């Protein structure tokens, strides 16, 4: 049977997490359908039909879907469910907010945070903050899966020629009202998609000292992240949190500055290709997962690194 992927997008562009989820869907079927719910999404749908692995793009366009209320989207998805063996969504805030509602409507158990697909009925997911890996087998007729984007490569967004099908919007009597969405804006790369991430922890001591991290990130064209300890201490906003209860990242280079390396933080970044840890505490757990470790006072080390990067840039120019 076909597999349905729920698209995460902003009404103009797909989020990269959708492309990762499409790659995961390829392990389940060659017949992959992408369901795009939103407002004024004609251009997005036309771009999406070029994605290499897709055979169909399903479109539901209505002004009421503009703000992605899951209470509106979930019934539309559940109405299509009988046509599919699997329904997938990214294990992002979007997917975690949406798919449990579909699960409740269909009375089907959801399997969350998939990092590998063994077969059509067997899936691998981390448990205990990533300290153990669980292999789950199911006999459900329809499987609802959230996919960890960092565990799968992005699908090619060109070379395809999927058909387009439009379905009607079915309104639902809601008590939920969309009021406002505050989105942080930055010239730096998006945390979940960045090639390089520079993260700070409680060792930075206060929010003013995060300026050091911003300067280093700008030199490297990197995204800025943080540990939960730094977020809880008010040094930086929670949208920067990396970890089990924050964002999962897997950049080519992850630089952990003043981060001890609690289990919950490691769960969100240990799939990074190269991990560099800077911490004056030699016993910090972060050194157990780091490829390179620097035992140094970060307030001395970071300015020196910035100085060396400036010198390197001068030589190259």
Secondary-structure topology with pairs:
Elements: E1 2-6, H1 16-26, E2 32-38, H2 42-48, E3 54-61, H3 70-80, E4 84-90, H4 93-106, E5 110-114, E6 116-119, E7 122-127, E8 132-137, E9 143-147, E10 163-166, E11 196-200, H5 210-220, E12 223-226, H6 228-232, E13 253-257, H7 263-269, E14 274-278, E15 292-294, H8 298-316
Parallel strand pairs: 1-2, 1-4, 2-3, 3-10, 4-9, 5-9, 11-12, 11-13, 13-14, 14-15
Antiparallel strand pairs: 6-7, 7-8
Question: What does the model show?
Answer:
The protein has about 325 residues and is of the alpha/beta class. The chain has 2 domains: about 1-165, HUPs (Rossmann fold); about 190-315, 3-Layer(aba) Sandwich (Rossmann fold), CATH 3.40.50. The chain has 8 helices and 15 strands. The strands form 3 sheets. The chain has a 7-stranded parallel β-sheet with strand order 5-9-4-1-2-3-10, with helices on both faces. Strands 12-11-13-14-15 form a 5-stranded parallel β-sheet. Strands 6-7-8 form a 3-stranded antiparallel β-sheet, with no helix packed on it. The chain is elongated, with a radius of gyration of 21 Å. It starts with a strand and ends with a helix.
């Amino acid at each position: 049977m076909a597999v349905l992927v729920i698209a995460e997008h902003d009404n103009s562009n797909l989020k990269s997490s959708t492309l990762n989820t499409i790659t995961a869907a390829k392990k389940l079927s060659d017949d992959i359908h992408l369901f795009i719910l939103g407002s004024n999404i004609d251009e997005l749908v036309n771009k999406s039909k070029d994605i290499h692995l897709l055979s169909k793009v399903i479109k539901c366009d209505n002004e009421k879907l503009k703000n992605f209320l899951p209470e509106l989207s979930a019934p539309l998805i559940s109405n299509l469910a009988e046509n599919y063996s699997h329904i997938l969504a990214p294990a992002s805030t979007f997917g975690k907010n949406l798919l449990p509602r579909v699960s409740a409507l269909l009375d089907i158990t959801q399997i969350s945070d998939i990092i590998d697909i063994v077969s059509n009925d067997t899936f691998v997911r981390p448990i205990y903050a990533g300290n153990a890996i669980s292999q789950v087998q199911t006999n459900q007729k329809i499987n609802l899966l959230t996919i960890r984007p960092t565990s799968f490569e992005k699908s090619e967004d060109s070379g395809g020629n999927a058909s387009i099908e439009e379905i009607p919007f079915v309104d639902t009597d809601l008590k939920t009202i969309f009021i406002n969405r505050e989105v942080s804006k930055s010239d730096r790369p998006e945390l979940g998609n960045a090639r390089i991430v520079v993260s700070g922890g409680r060792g930075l001591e206060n929010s003013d000292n995060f300026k050091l991290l911003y300067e280093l990130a700008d030199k490297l064209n990197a995204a800025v992240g943080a540990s939960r300890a730094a977020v809880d201490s008010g040094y930086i906003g929670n949208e920067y949190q990396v970890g089990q209860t924050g964002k999962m990242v897997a950049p080519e280079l992850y630089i952990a500055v003043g981060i001890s390396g609690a289990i919950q933080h490691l769960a969100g970044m240990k799939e990074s290709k190269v991990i560099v840890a800077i911490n004056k505490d030699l016993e910090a757990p972060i050194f157990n997962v780091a490829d390179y470790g620097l035992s140094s006072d970060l307030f001395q080390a970071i300015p020196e690194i910035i100085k060396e990067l400036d010198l390197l840039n001068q030589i190259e120019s």
